[in-house]
Amino acid sequence: MSRIHEALKKAELERAASQGGATEVHDANANPSPEYAPQATPGMAASTGPSFGAAYSFDALLARCPQGLWHPDQKTMLFFNGDEQAYGTEEFRTLRSRLYQIREKQGLRKLLISSSLPKEGKSFVAANLAQVIVRQQGRRVLLIDADLRGPQLHNNFGTTSTPGLAEYLRGENDEFGVMQRGPMENLFFIPSGKAMTNPGELVANGRLKFLLSRVEPLLTGSSLIRRRLSQFPTPRCWPTIATAF
User: Fold this and answer.
1) What are 216-232's pLDDT values in tens digits?
2) Short-list 228, 211, 204, 224, CA closest to 150
3) pLDDT digits (tens, 9 = 90+) for 142-173
């Protein structure tokens, strides 16, 4: 097919030259844009919304994402209370070490925390794993609550749920507008946003993939943990995400 395309293109150029004029030839295989552009969906805001394409640095992220006031649940958020020997903390340190061992053998930048049933501890595991990772120097974590039906992580951290991932996917906010950071250094959080009953089309519009490609370079040497990705066929199979070790 490529030879036929080249022959047609050459014939068109020769015909234009014989007529003494210039003709613009469009290559159907050419990429119209060097940067991935998310597809628009009926629920997405118009083009007058925030810009999503501008490059930025980690310093810019800190400047645009000021530290907020969180009220973590002291019973479930194990590393916010200052007790290094609290029940369960050593298990999360062991899990962190196992993940680092896996990373030495294969690339590991993102984690998806999921299960087949609700209330099995996805939020608990994702949140505490994020905390134990950032306690090591130079580690950064972005935790994303991708449960767009029944969000919970914002309650664990004692913060607001909006704006969040849902608003980003609709094009209403850029990543700066939905990302939060609290009292624990290098721990960033994107809540789920406003809960919805049918998030499938919104998740499939490509903007989530674009978000991860944008933030991953800033988290080099870190992790991104995502909880509950609402694109599964059953509402009882929701995950969580984390990026970059």
Assistant:
1) 888 765 556 666 544 33
2) 228
3) 999 988 888 889 999 999 999 999 999 999 99
Rg (CA), the chain: 22
Note the pTM of the prediction, 2 decimals.
0.73
Give the three-class secondary structure for 8: helix
Dihedral over Cα of 211, 216, 219, 223: its sign = positive
The residue ranges of every structural domain in the chain are: 54-243
Sign (positive/negative) of CA torsion 179, 184, 187, 193? negative
Residues 242 and 122: their CA atoms lie apart, in Å, by: 12
> Is the previous residue joined to 50 through a cis bond, with omega within 30 degrees of 0?
no
Environment class of residue 108 by beta-carbon count within 10 Å: exposed (0-12), middle (13-18) or buried (19+)? middle
H or E element: which one contains 60? helix 58-64
CB 216 within 8 A of CB 109: yes
Class of domain 54-243: alpha beta
Q: Token pair of 147, please?
A: 């449960």
Q: Which two tokens stand for residue 209?
A: 């993939």
